[in-house]
């Protein structure tokens, strides 16, 4: 019936259950059974009161013309009945259906059950994935309740393993007589160990490596800048053999020459190591043989760093032998060596041209000339998978630009992204030839950067090639110097441009141009080209040949000399107030000083002349007197001889 109260229906249904236990409806939930038990145990409801409440409810529905006071009284009675039901924690069926946790009698039970379900879900994720799930709110979230024992055993093993490693390291330090390194202790259990420039001795390195032999967490190990020596190097070799988690190993500047062969042999046997750094270890050509064998046998190594050593062309050729058998290397760094790239290095260039995985080559700060540029042209021509090539800060001259252009002008698709050729010995005409093949739309490549360095002065030919290259590759960036061409600068602004450029060069080499101008003020006003070049060699301006040519051409006099006074005037006009100019002396004082100097010189000259005249007179007198005596003696002797002859 629409006017009956839900509580009445529940009471009638409960009475039916008690009279006939077999007649149990199938749609009754366990929560409703619990609620009905609480109702029957807590209170006994009279049937008469329930009938009266039902009749009152019917009268409220049917009476439409009663007074408002009667309605208020009946509503208050209904509210009192509802309050009594709520005080007894009795829920209606509608409230049970609308409740978001129908099967949980309280909010606390729901939270605990939800926590448990979260544990179950995270346990499944943790067991079926390789991701580390870290939740600070759930310490044991990966393990459900029915596996608490197993989880405790696992976590116990993890903590016991770390504690065992720490205890082992502390024991080794105690036996060796030095304190444990706190950075190493904190890094245990993490993925990165960075001990760069910690001043560790060979014994300390040995203790660390012995501890890491069985470590299963550290993936990046940086030991650069520590004196490993032979003992530490042998310990590093044993660690590489026994450890299976370290992927990147940095041994730059660690003095490992005595144990280089053992380390290379260990690397050739491992399959987990991906990157190794042997920079700054004073390696020479003879040391390349074990490294060549290492890269030939290891087919998992991807990055090899050999920068800042003493490697020459012979050592480069030895590396080429091992590289020809390798199929995994992606990046090779040979910067800051003494490589020229001449005939001996041909084997390395051939191996790079046929390598299936090589992507990055760094040969910056070497001694590569035009002949060496032919080798890199061969690499670009044969290997279309090269992405980054760095040839910056070498000594390539005019013929190197066309050589590199031949390597880029194949017309086949390639993966080249960046090309660094800054700070060479060429002019803008040779550099511009590199851009010509990039202006061909048939040369498809995702090139992003061509860096010529901001010190390269450019002119029309370079700018035209640049515009064509940018039209073919709109997303490419080309770095170069000022687009005015100091070598061919003309017009009224040529002198300020040269001074401005010289200031930029001096700032790059940390030498203020003001100091050079002050030194130039002490030189003669006009200098020959040889004298000016000697002056330029005293500073860093000689490193930019185009700038030296610009000074000689722009500030030249009709007689072919360099006008130093004009250079100082242009500097003072471009940067007024920077140079300290001594105050000129008054003209009268200058004239008096000149007169005094002349008088002093005249007095000195007069004394010198007087002395000269007196000396001349005395000499003449002595010469005259001596001549008379000699003549008399000769005269006296001659007749005697005649007399003898006559007799």
Helix-strand layout with pairing:
Blueprint: H1 6-19, H2 30-42, H3 47-62, H4 68-87, H5 93-98, H6 107-127, H7 148-176, H8 182-187, E1 192-194, H9 202-212, E2 220-222, H10 229-242, E3 248-250, H11 260-269, E4 275-277, H12 288-297, E5 303-305, H13 313-323, E6 331-333, H14 346-354, E7 360-362, H15 370-382, E8 388-390, H16 400-408, E9 418-420, H17 428-435, E10 449-451, H18 460-472, E11 477-479, H19 494-508, H20 513-521, E12 526-527, H21 529-537, H22 545-554, E13 562-563, H23 564-574, H24 587-646
Parallel strand pairs: 1-2, 2-3, 3-4, 4-5, 5-6, 6-7, 7-8, 8-9, 9-10, 10-11
Antiparallel strand pairs: 12-13
Mean pLDDT: 75
Structural class, from helix and strand content? mainly alpha
Strand content: 5-15%
Oligomer: single chain
Q: CA-to-CA gap between the ends?
A: 199 Å
Helix content: 40-55%
Shape: globular
The overall strand count is 13
Low-confidence stretches: 21-29, 63-69, 71-76, 79-89, 100-110, 125-156, 485-490, 616-647
What is the makeup of the main sheet? Answer: 11 strands, parallel
How many helices? The count is: 24
Rg over CA atoms, rounded to whole Å, is 49 Å
Across the major sheet, the strand order is 1-2-3-4-5-6-7-8-9-10-11
């Amino acid at each position: 019936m629409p006017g009956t109260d839900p509580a009445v229906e529940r009471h009638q249904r409960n009475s039916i259950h008690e009279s006939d236990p077999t007649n149990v409806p199938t749609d009754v939930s366990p929560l409703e059974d619990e609620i009905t038990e609480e109702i029957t145990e807590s209170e006994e409801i009279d049937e008469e009161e329930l009938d009266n409440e039902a009749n009152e409810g019917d009268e409220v529905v049917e009476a439409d013309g009663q007074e408002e006071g009667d309605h208020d009284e009946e509503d208050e009675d209904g509210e009192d009945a509802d309050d009594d039901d709520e005080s007894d924690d009795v829920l209606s069926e509608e409230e049970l259906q609308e409740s978001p946790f129908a099967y949980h009698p309280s909010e606390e039970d729901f939270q605990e059950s939800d926590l448990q379900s979260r544990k179950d879900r995270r346990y499944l994720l943790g067991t079926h994935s390789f991701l580390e799930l870290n939740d600070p709110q759930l310490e044991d979230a990966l393990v459900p309740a029915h596996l608490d024992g197993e989880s405790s055993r696992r976590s116990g093993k993890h903590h016991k393993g770390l504690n065992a490693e720490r205890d082992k390291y502390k024991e080794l330090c105690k036996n060796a007589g030095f304190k444990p390194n706190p950075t190493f202790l904190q890094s245990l259990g993490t993925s990165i160990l960075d001990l760069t420039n910690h001043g560790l001795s060979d014994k300390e390195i040995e203790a660390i490596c012995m501890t890491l032999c069985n470590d299963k967490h550290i993936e990046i190990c940086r030991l650069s800048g520590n004196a490993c020596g032979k003992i530490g190097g042998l310990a590093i070799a044993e660690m590489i053999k026994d450890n299976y988690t370290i992927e990147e190993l940095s041994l730059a500047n660690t003095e490992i020459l005595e144990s280089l062969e053992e380390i290379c042999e260990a690397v050739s046997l491992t399959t987990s190591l991906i990157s190794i750094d042997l920079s700054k270890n004073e390696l020479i050509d003879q040391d390349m043989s074990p490294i060549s064998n290492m890269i030939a046998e290891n087919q998992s190594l991807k990055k090899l760093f050999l920068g800042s050593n003493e490697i020459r062309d012979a050592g480069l050729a030895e590396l080429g032998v091992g590289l020809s058998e390798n199929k995994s290397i992606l990046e090779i760094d040979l910067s800051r060596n003494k490589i020229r790239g001449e005939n001996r290095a041909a084997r390395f260039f051939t191996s790079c041209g046929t390598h299936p995985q090589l992507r990055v080559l760094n040969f910056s700060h070497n001694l590569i000339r035009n002949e060496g540029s032919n080798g890199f042209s061969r690499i670009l021509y044969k290997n279309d998978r090269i992405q980054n090539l760095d040839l910056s800060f070498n000594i390539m001259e005019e013929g190197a630009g066309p050589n590199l252009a031949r390597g880029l002008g194949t017309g086949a698709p390639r993966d080249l992204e960046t090309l660094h050729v800054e700070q060479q010995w060429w002019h803008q005409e040779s550099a511009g030839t590199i851009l010509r093949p990039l202006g061909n739309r048939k040369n498809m490549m995702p090139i992003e950067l061509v860096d010529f360095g901001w010190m390269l002065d450019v002119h029309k030919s370079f700018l035209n090639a640049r515009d064509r290259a940018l039209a073919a590759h709109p997303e490419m960036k080309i770095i170069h110097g000022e687009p005015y061409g100091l070598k061919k600068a003309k017009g009224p602004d040529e002198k300020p441009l040269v001074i401005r450029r010289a200031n930029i060069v001096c700032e790059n080499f940390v030498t203020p141009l003001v100091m050079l101008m002050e030194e130039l003020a002490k030189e003669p006003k006009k200098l020959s080209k040889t004298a000016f070049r000697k002056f330029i060699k005293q500073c860093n301006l000689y490193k930019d040949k185009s700038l030296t040519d610009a000074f000689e051409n722009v500030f030249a006099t009709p007689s072919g000399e360099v006008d130093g006074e004009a250079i100082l005037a242009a500097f003072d006009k471009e940067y007024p107030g920077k140079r300290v100019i001594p105050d000129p002396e008054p003209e009268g004082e200058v004239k008096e000083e000149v007169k005094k100097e002349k008088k002093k010189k005249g007095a000195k000259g007069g004394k010198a002349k007087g002395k000269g005249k007196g000396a001349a007179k005395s000499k003449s007198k002595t010469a005259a007197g001596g001549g008379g005596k000699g003549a008399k003696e000769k005269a006296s002797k001659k007749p005697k001889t005649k007399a003898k002859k006559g007799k």
